């Protein structure tokens, strides 16, 4: 079993993502197309994208579907990843090392992977179950949904499942396939398959693909990486017939280099830790007036309005006052000037009719 080979196949499978070239398609329509696990839902989702934009649908379909649409993935791979979150995770994992010189970068990678392999191996070794926690969680989730399904069966391999809305999905228990597409694609029984197992009083656990077994999990992290001695202890190296490798051409891209990983379309946004916002409605921290929980609160709105009006009044009074003072000062100055020009006896402030 070549786990690495499979990982490579999976990485080829998701070599193209709808988000990369079809940003202009609004909403998450294109993701529904990519995520559809069977032909029928795929066609349906594609039709709704086409309704929104014929161009967008054409651009999606210009790429071979087996590269990005779940329903067309190779079922033997047992992988349903439609995003490249895996590489984004890796990117974020190596974030501090990315700007390091090459030797230091490789050394830091080696350390990280050395520790990761042993930690994950120990985690798998300690596991008190026959399947991985991921598979277990998935089963539990599907079991909940399976309880809502009705199973009908005559004889033979085909089982009919009906949900509460009356939607019919067929399960082939011998081939391990389901109309919904997920069982054969992931190797984890979908809710329909689980409903059939419940009906037959079988354990869904026993029908999980070997890839999710404790054994396979341990094998994934079985490899070992040894520490490398310090550079001063490296053996002498005489390069012979080895071409001189020049550093790669440096291409400078526009804008600040991006370090943050790209989030999945349905992933919540990262919490903003650099500043806290204060609401101008209720004056509390943590939200703004658009998302204020007391927005509908009429009393608060009225009080706020009243406060604003009072403040405006105070401000205008102050302005009037200072305005008058300025005028008075200017008049006195003018009178003084006149007095200087005409002489002190001809005119004074009282004669000018001023207070
Ligand atoms: Zn199913
Ligand atoms: Zn508020």
UniProtKB/TrEMBL annotation:
Q: Where is this region: Disordered?
A: 240-273
Q: Which GO terms describe its molecular function?
A: zinc ion binding
Top-rank taxon of the source lineage equals Eukaryota
Which key words tag this protein in UniProt?
A: Metal-binding, Zinc, Zinc-finger
Q: What is this protein called?
A: SWIM-type domain-containing protein
Q: Which InterPro entries match?
A: Znf_PMZ, Znf_SWIM
PROSITE patterns cross-referenced by the UniProt entry:
ZF_SWIM
Q: Which organism is it from?
A: Acer yangbiense
- Which residue intervals are annotated with compositional bias (Basic residues) in the record? 250-262
